[in-house]
Design a protein that fits this description.
mainly alpha, 3 strands, 70% helix
């Protein structure tokens, strides 16, 4: 039993520094890419007269801000428990996802307002320069590569915050595609296509921002783990030798981890020490096999035929 506890702690200690390092490394790569994209897109957009490209550049700037939000969250979420945060600081990740979502929502609404203003005065729409198309296509390729890289890292370290940031990058790739189409249409004589492209990008960004913010808000208000996760946790609890049954299994998210509570049904004829050992084994089994930060157990004694379970249940 102690070996299982030691192994769980060692795995956790080894995984956290690796997870933090991978998160920081991928985010700094994103920072470098977004600095380059923001400068090139905004400058090219101003020179070429493309509102769509300028909107895409502002989107890249929002990514840059989002990257620094992620770095800040990673720094705080890995802190050990203290007097003010007995369960650690994992919910900084949920808070960061909420900020990312609200940021995307604000940027998207701003793009929509600007595009609508242009569409109301079509005579003010200039014909864009051909350089805008090349910059938009280049940004599309760069953002798609960045998305695939960040998603790979996010899935490897199992970080919902990184997944959100990766899909943020994918939304950029989609927006660059729309902008490229709009610029191409403008070059072919369809001037309205450039602000229409900016309008579509705005809707895409706002919709994704709302989704991330709403999801993070649920996590911050003690949303339960998924049905699959709860079922797997319950199965491991019931597989623990000495556990006759269980009820009132409750879970809540904290960052990418889970806090859980459960009532264990244990033979009432056992000693307090024996019941405690069974509950502890159930807790360690769950924490070793699932992303559970802590499992609070409560022992409920149950009446069983004398001697039926004692030897068999404790032998495992």
């Amino acid at each position: 039993m102690n070996d299982l506890h030691d192994l769980s702690e060692l795995d956790s200690e080894d995984a956290l520094p690796e997870r933090e390092a991978a998160t920081k490394r991928s985010t700094w790569v994103s920072v470098a890419v977004n600095i380059g994209l923001t400068i090139s897109q905004v400058v090219a957009g101003v020179i070429s007269g493309s509102q769509g490209l300028i909107a895409d550049g502002i989107h890249s700037l929002s990514d840059l801000v989002a990257d620094f939000v992620v770095l800040l969250a990673v720094h705080h979420s890995q802190k050990a428990p203290d007097d003010d945060h007995h369960y650690g600081h994992q919910r900084y990740e949920n808070a960061a996802s909420l900020v990312l979502g609200l940021l995307l929502l604000a940027v998207g609404l701003g793009m929509i307002g600007s595009a609508v203003h242009k569409l109301e005065a079509p005579e003010s729409i200039p014909k864009v320069h051909f350089i805008a198309l090349w910059v938009a296509l280049g940004a599309l390729v760069v953002k798609e590569v960045l998305f695939r890289y960040m998603l790979h890292v996010a899935e490897k370290v199992r970080s919902s915050m990184l997944v959100a940031n990766a899909w943020h990058a994918r939304s950029d790739a989609a927006s660059s595609l729309v902008v490229a189409i709009g610029i191409g249409g403008n070059l072919l004589g369809f001037g309205l296509l450039d602000p229409i492209a900016a309008l579509i990008v705005g809707f895409m960004v706002a919709r994704m921002g709302w989704g991330f913010a709403w999801d993070a808000l649920h996590d911050l208000t003690d949303r339960a783990a998924t049905e699959e996760q709860v079922a797997a946790i319950a199965a491991d609890i019931l597989a623990t030798p000495g556990v006759l049954g269980m009820h009132e299994l409750k879970t809540r998210k904290t960052g990418d981890m889970i806090l859980a509570d459960v009532h264990l049904e244990i033979d009432g004829s056992l000693t307090v020490t024996q019941g405690h050992d069974i509950a502890r084994q159930a807790k360690l089994r769950v924490m070793a096999n699932h992303p559970v930060l802590y499992l609070m157990t409560h022992v409920d004694p149950v009446n069983t035929p004398a001697g039926t379970h004692n030897a068999a249940q404790l032998s495992g």
